[in-house]
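Something for you to look into today, if you have time. What I am after is a single protein written out in full by you. I want to see for myself how the chain folds. Could you add the entry underneath, on a fresh line?
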Amino acid sequence: RSASGTAAGAAMTRLGVKAVVPGAAEWARLDEILAGHGGDRTLYLAANLKAAPGVRTLPGRTVFEAGGQRVGVFGLSAEANGRSLSGGNARSYELTDPLEAARDAAAALRAESDVVVALTNLTPSQNARLRARVPGIDVIVGDSLPSDPDAELETLTADDPERGPEDAALLVTADAPAVVTHLTLRYDDIGEGRYGLGAREERLPLDESVPDLPGFAPFHYEAYGVDSSQAPPLLPAVRRLSADGRGSGGLKDLDFWRLAASLTAESFGAEAAFLPVQPVEERTTGDFREGIVRSWFVSPDRVVVVQLSGGELARLLSDARRTESPDASIPPGGLRLAVGGVGKGETIHGVGIDHRSSYRVALTERVLAQSEQFASLKGASASETGPALEESVVTGLRAASQAAWPPERYRSLFSGAPMRESGLWRINFRDVNVNVSNTKVVSEPALAGVSNARIRGFDELLIGGVSKTDAEYVSGRAKWTNSLELEYARSRLRPPGQREILSTPKNSLEARTSAALSVAKFPVAWVAASVGPSFGVEYEGELERLPYTRRKHKVSVLPGVELFNGTLLRTVSLSANLQRDFTPPSPVNQYGARLRALLAAPVAGAMLAGELGTRYFFLTPHDTPADLRLELEASVKL
């Protein structure tokens, strides 16, 4: 940590460094840099940084004197570094196309300085395009080479005795880990806007022969796995984590961050977790101790919890899966995501994502800020804010280490699988309402003697309510459904010239429990995804016993077939109805069939809901033609 971020900036200011291009660690601490905690904030140059109106920003270029010449320097930071911005800063800052910014910066510095230098942390191919497409740059500083400690550190020279302001860069310098590149420039003004330029590039390896300068941060061995702590390591060595036992391929970035996402989902009780993928540098062939693991959290971030509809979760999951591919096209400043808590076949708790349900999802502030890249997050807001991502994941890994997880336990989570399989409760409030109506009848005196009830209406006050709720528990192919339906209303009638009459037009209670097992897929998706046998028990009664009547008590056994989880129909249940009515003094048996269907589908931001309930009873020798044989109830609402 001492070699990056604000600590490095403060040290460079003390050393007299004139210009620095921010890298991932600096962008992660942009607030500290803007506040001046990382040394002089004008030290940091980023010509391709675009800031929202009214916010503080970094300069794009600077001019200083060296050797009697004016040296103009502009900075270019890789667009990918924008992924390190915090959630709040990602909304206010953006790293744009470096070539466009370079053209403007080079043209401005050409008029203000003798030598123009582009200071970049772009890739070698990007620097090559910069050299080919942007004239007016004398030297490009910041190319990178693979680290090879045994390679010869060559000294390079380049010379152009006569240059003009529209020429391509004379030199693109090379850089490598643990190496300081020293560049010497020679400038000769030959008049009429022409000049000669020579360059010499030397490299100094930073090995043990270079002593630490007093007052500056020493080398931190912990970040490279050298630790005197007796605490157990957080992760086993790569050779133990790999399936082949040899560790070929190393620890992949995506594998670790999927593991971290699964730990995060479990820790926050979320159905799924989405974390930004950051580079993982192994730095050791042994077990991974805490110092190494903490070094992988380059950008400070915080865990947040949001509520997403099933449709939004499915879209976010699809977008995240696309970013997992090494060939995925990540937009400038965008993120690559790792997914945790999701099972095989993109299932949550063993079942497919229901677009009509709401899910608890763990993200980070940086992910939540990327609503331009992940459109399903545009309307999301944090319902809960957790600790720093680093602390949350390290705590989970520490608990796994203390529990002595075997290597295969870690390896099983490299796919982002849930830490444990568990069922899923769904609560569906199908209907909750209160009904209040007050009817006032105004009669014409001339009709006072007419006995027609449609003309001689009564004043009436009615107060009632309805509550219909389903609680489903789903685990794998099994589903257990419990329903409670309550309906009650009291009415006060005021006939003219008579005493008030109290009545109870609504007074019902229905409780139902049923179990179903999916045994096959259903071919029509809007009707159902699965079909299988079901068995249920239903009770019909009354909330209140009315005067001079026997309280209603009916119990039904419902063996049948259920279709469930269609895109339009939530469930369709067709069953036999074996009912025993305990209401009369001598219980009565009735036999028939029952159909129950629930509809639910999102429509233009709202929910279309409906239900159909039908009971049909066969005539028995004890029945009369006047007995009720068919009951039908249907409703649709938006």
The longest strand covers residues 459-475.
